[in-house]
């Protein structure tokens, strides 16, 4: 399959090239030249399959330059690191289900893709005949960083460097990253917010002189953020799997439409659901859930994307984002795949901090998407109510998505659609905030929060989190956002 840039400046033959490059030369994102269809017969055939087998069928539609048997083996190896079913579906109430995506090594949904990406990247470089070492640069709002570090640690021929916003991630997220093992990893705190990290990393990718300098040192750049199609593709699979689980569980009939409520900041997670719909999955509507940084809610309702607004640090830090990179891929589609129009909008965003889509483009978006958000009090209330009513404990990001789902049903009382709320993190990744929501108790120490949350909920504590207390902190460095390339050179020049 060919891949093209959303801004029209590049076309590559094969997924391997798109995955290894990460970002197109014109600054655009790689998208498939077309959406490969999944027929009703193919869906039926996937019903009895395991999760890795289902994922292999979906990914194989895009990654046709990878060996099918090898891809399946890689997926089986990746998901063997998970505790039980990689993406179980849990019924909460009549018509409401939770898709748990946090059973992987780092207890967050990013594991669903980042345990697979190292294989895609290593094999992709072989397919492309690349001889240089690969340097992975990651900007993270919390979860991507740890998942990428864990996925790529000690990978031969690859170095990975993660940048996170200083004071912009949870204490548990920071500890996960800064205690990371591996001889090829580095973690640096950036003075600023996530958007500062993301913008600075994108700039490194776009400056030709930087690429030349790295190549002289024997490295090429790639990305593990969701701007990389290799991150996005594995996420498409869990929407198919959730739908198939609803069918096999007798909750819906094959072909029946389903809604998803998705907590999202960078828009990649919900975009994967849109890609699934374009492939033929019976997705009815996608509910984009935000926290107080509700720029996406405003965009979906009004058609203007405006970053000139107050930035909030919330209890759902992975959604504390004002520049949603993956929204560019959706804009490309609703503009009729007009690359010039997409480039124009992205130029306006860069120069003016805002853009407005046409009424026709907005209508195309609203055919599938609507948005909602939860403020901090509403997150607490939602997590508490669900716990009291059902005994189920959810994290703060999932709380945002649940609030949006419940709001939909409150406004549309006659709607009988099955709603899948995407649960993106284990509650113990945010123990103090979840504890406060469930019990009203406020503790300062993360590990004390874990202990008390366990006492209150009896939910099992993942070993990967409980063991962090005894792990030594390896990374304490900080940098200004305009000095990140200096940090990159320092890292690759280390002996």
How would you describe the overall organization of this protein?
The chain has 495 residues and is of the alpha/beta class. The protein has a domain at 86-100 and 230-446: Rossmann fold (3-Layer(aba) Sandwich). 46% of the residues lie in helices and 16% in strands. The strands form four sheets. Strands 4-5-15-10-11-14 form a six-stranded mixed beta sheet, with helices on both faces. It has a five-stranded parallel beta sheet with strand order 9-6-7-8-16, with helices on both faces. A three-stranded antiparallel beta sheet has the order 2-1-3. Helix 1 crosses helix 6, helix 11 (229-248) crosses helix 12 and helix 17 (376-390) crosses helix 19 (431-439). It is globular. The two termini are 40 Å apart. The model has no long low-confidence stretch (mean pLDDT 95).
What's this model, at a glance?
The chain is 46% helix and 16% strand. The protein is an alpha/beta fold and 495 residues long.
Offer a few descriptive terms.
495 residues, alpha/beta, Rossmann fold, five-stranded parallel sheet, 22 helices, globular
């Amino acid at each position: 399959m060919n891949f093209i840039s959303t801004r029209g400046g590049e076309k590559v033959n094969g997924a391997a090239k798109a995955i290894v490059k990460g970002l197109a030369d014109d600054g655009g994102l790689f998208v498939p030249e077309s959406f490969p269809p999944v027929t009703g017969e193919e869906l039926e055939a996937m019903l009895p399959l395991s999760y890795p087998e289902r994922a292999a069928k979906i990914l194989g539609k895009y990654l046709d330059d990878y060996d099918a048997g090898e891809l399946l083996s890689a997926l089986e190896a990746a998901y063997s690191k998970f505790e039980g079913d990689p993406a179980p579906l849990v019924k909460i109430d009549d018509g409401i289900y939770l898709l748990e995506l946090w059973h992987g090594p780092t207890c967050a949904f990013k594991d669903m893709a980042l345990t697979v990406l190292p294989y895609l990247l290593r094999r992709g470089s072989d397919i492309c005949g690349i001889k240089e070492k690969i340097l992975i640069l990651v900007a993270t709002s919390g979860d991507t960083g740890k998942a990428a570090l864990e996925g790529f640690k000690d990978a031969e021929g690859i170095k990975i460097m993660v940048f996170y916003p200083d004071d912009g991630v949870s204490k548990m997220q920071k500890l996960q990253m800064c205690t990371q093992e591996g001889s090829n990893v580095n973690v640096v705190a950036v003075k600023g917010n996530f958007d500062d990290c993301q913008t600075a990393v994108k700039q490194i990718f776009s400056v030709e002189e930087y690429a030349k300098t790295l190549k002289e040192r024997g490295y090429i750049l790639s990305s593990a953020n969701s701007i990389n199609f290799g991150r996005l593709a594995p996420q498409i699979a869990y929407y198919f799997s959730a739908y198939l689980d609803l069918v096999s569980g007798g909750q819906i009939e094959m072909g029946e439409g389903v809604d998803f409520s998705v907590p999202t900041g960078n828009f990649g997670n919900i975009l994967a659901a849109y890609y699934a719909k374009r492939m033929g999955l019976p997705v009815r509507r996608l509910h984009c859930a935000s926290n107080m940084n509700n720029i996406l809610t405003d965009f979906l309702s009004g058609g203007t994307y405006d970053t000139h607004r107050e930035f909030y640090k919330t209890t759902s830090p992975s959604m504390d984002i004002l520049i949603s990179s993956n929204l560019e891929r959706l804009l490309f589609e609703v503009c009729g795949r007009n690359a010039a129009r997409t480039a124009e909008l992205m130029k306006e965003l860069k120069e003016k901090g805002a853009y407005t889509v046409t009424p026709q483009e907005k209508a195309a978006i609203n055919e599938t998407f609507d948005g909602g958000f939860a403020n901090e009090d509403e997150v607490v209330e939602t997590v508490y109510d669900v716990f009291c009513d059902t005994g189920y404990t959810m994290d703060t990001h999932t709380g945002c998505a649940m609030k949006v789902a419940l709001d939909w049903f409150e406004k549309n009382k006659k709607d009988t659609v099955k709603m899948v709320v995407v649960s993106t993190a284990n509650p113990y990744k945010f123990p103090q905030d979840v504890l406060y929501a469930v019990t009203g108790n406020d503790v300062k120490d993360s590990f004390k929060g874990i202990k008390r949350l366990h006492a209150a909920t009896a939910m099992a504590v993942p070993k990967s989190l409980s063991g962090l207390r005894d792990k030594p902190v390896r990374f304490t460095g900080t940098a200004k956002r305009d000095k990140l390339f200096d940090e990159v050179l320092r890292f690759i020049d280390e002996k």
